[in-house]
Amino acid sequence: MNSQCVRVLGPHVTSQRAPVSAAQSRRRHRRTWQTPCTASGATEAASSPRDGFSIADAELSATFDTLASLVVPPGDPSAGVLAARPTPLGRGLTARQAAPPGAPLLTVELWNTLCVCDDPAGSGGGAFGARALEDWEMVHGPLPPMLQAYILSAHRLAPTPSRAESGWFTRLVAWLLHVTRHGGGVWPLYKRLLPRGHESLMHFLPEERHELQSPELEALAERERDAILGLHASIFSEATGDLRALRLAAAPADTLWAASMVNSRCFADEVAGEALSLVVPCADMANHSSAPNASYRLDADSGSFQLIANRDVAEGEEVCISYLGQNPTKPNTLMLKDHGFVIPGNVNDRVPFSAGDDAQSRALGAPRVAAALRSAPLAAAAARLAKAGGDAAGARRLEAAARSLHPFCGRGGGPLSAAAAAVEKERRTVDALLQQCSDMLASHATTLETDEQLLAGSDDPGTPPLSPRVGAAVAARLERKRLLVAAQSLLTAYAEGL
Ligand SMILES: C[S@@+](CC[C@H](N)C(=O)[O-])C[C@H]1O[C@@H](n2cnc3c(N)ncnc32)[C@H](O)[C@@H]1O
């Protein structure tokens, strides 16, 4: 996947195994759906849905269990291992029982996913994706021929550069819109589990964007929204789109919704060199953690998609994966763009210092920068600070700050001359960088402390909580400020050691 692109959850695992024989799998597992559209056993929830969701928390668990009973292979050892619940990260998956490393936590048959080949015009010719679609139709019924042709096509209709290579994205959006509007069987149930709103940048309205306190993010939010609205008009709209005969999206909000669901919930994997993108019911309830206890894989041999324990998982523990797997350079700007939240202490973030020598870092190249950092005086200062106190997110911020500062001070990891003139010059550099940090902090409309208070919420029952999007914006700007403060303390510690 191109690093500018939308998505992706988890690592891009490459499977060298041969694709499953679709015909063989069908014989083993074929079944058709005649399932209820509401969760069996779910009682009328006393509480109402939280902001942005169709179902109340009380209904979540039963709805998930019903869906899982339909998409997990019969008799699979993972059946019933995970539950969907409210968690500290919102709603997520928790383990009903302890699981050892390597244990399957959730297995979903591939024909219960929406699986598209990223590049059907590529060398593999989209063979696995085509077989996956064939299997899907055997189980869920035939798709309208126009949609089937679109999903298999190598269409590059997207109008923006960031999505020019993302035919997979528009094809998945089309398929998701179809199943959630016209699909039967498991799909109405799946739709009930999906959020109705989202906090990714495309959803920010013009009047909300100032909450981001970043001209760069505000511009990105505008571009994102315009791009999806463009896709709506040209492809998905039932009035004007190329696919209008399919009646996929009545209003722009429908396309915005489906686009953010694909962006924030889609997995990527590879089978025999064929890159694939998947929407996987139930597995897409896994939240992100910077220390994940689970990972995922598409197992072509068994024709399934699995969540697997990375380590011992305790009963009741939330099961999380890393969303950074395939794009280990994904900074918080892109996390907010695609996923609608930021990672506290994202090592991929950078302080945008302007007076330094960017050419120097480019010339060094990423591997050499990383190697130099290990011995650099800045890294030593960061390690000292991290050891002195603070949490894991704080240590990651110091690392991100050290990486940001590396091209500008610390002599690129080389020995620093003890000559008085050299030390004096380095001090002046540090002072200039400290000033930049102060200026950047001062350029925000609110202080770090104010943002912390806003996120903590008010004790006054008359003060309404932040809306989800404003909450995401405040968390994003707070994280930016915390990185700047980490850079300040790092520069101060570094200067003291000169
Ligand atoms: C794949 S879904 C996970 C399930 C989701 N929490 C739900 O309720 O449907 C991804 C979305 O979950 C939320 N999310 C996942 N990990 C998160 C985290 N570490 N912190 C905050 N929100 C998170 C974000 O809204 C993200 O776009």
UniProtKB/TrEMBL annotation:
Per UniProt, residues of the SET domain are 112-324
The UniProt keywords, alphabetically, are:
Methyltransferase, S-adenosyl-L-methionine, Transferase
DNA damage keyword on record: no
Molecular functions per Gene Ontology = protein-lysine N-methyltransferase activity
Show the segment(s) annotated as Disordered.
1-50
Q: Which PROSITE patterns match?
A: SET (PS50280)
Biological process annotations from GO: methylation
Q: Which CDD domains match?
A: SET_LSMT (cd10527)
The cross-references to InterPro entries, in alphabetical order and at most eight, read: Rubisco_LSMT_subst-bd, Rubisco_LSMT_subst-bd_sf, SET_dom, SET_dom_sf, SETD3_SETD6_MTase
Task: Give residue spans, biased composition: Polar residues.
Answer: 13-24
Record-given protein name: SET domain-containing protein
Originating organism:
Monoraphidium neglectum
Source taxonomy lineage? Eukaryota, Viridiplantae, Chlorophyta, core chlorophytes, Chlorophyceae
